[in-house]
Amino acid sequence: MQELQIIQELTEEFKRCSTALSAIGDETRQSIILALLEGAEDGRRVGEITESVSLSRPAVSHHLKVLKDAGIVSVRRDGTMNFYYLNPQESTLTRIRSLMSRVDELMQVAGRKLCR
């Protein structure tokens, strides 16, 4: 594959990942992701997350919406309760990991060329 074509593909993939990259760039949302990782397998409710990250319920709800809209967090309804969780099969984090792997590969190739 030609270098220009690879760069164009990476550019498009960065565009597809831009919302998720922006979402995970916020320290508060990173704290929420960590709280979800520490939580129960079936998810955590807003109140539980609020206790973990020391934010107000409205603030946590806002950040969860951003993470959900970015495809990072999923929600499961049980009656009137919402349980938020990380789903590796559906998360855009998988797409970001793939993108970063491609970038890393290209950096390794470029590094080897510079060392010659």
Automatic annotation (TrEMBL):
InterPro entries under this entry?
A: ArsR-like_HTH, HTH_ArsR_DNA-bd_dom, HTH_MetalResp_TranReg, WH-like_DNA-bd_sf, WH_DNA-bd_sf
- The HTH arsR-type domain is annotated at 9-111
Q: What are the protein's UniProt keywords?
A: DNA-binding, Transcription, Transcription regulation
Annotated signal sequence range: none
Determine the domain of life of the protein's source.
Bacteria
GO molecular function annotation: DNA binding; DNA-binding transcription factor activity
Q: What is this protein called?
A: Winged helix-turn-helix transcriptional regulator
Q: Which organism is it from?
A: Fumia xinanensis
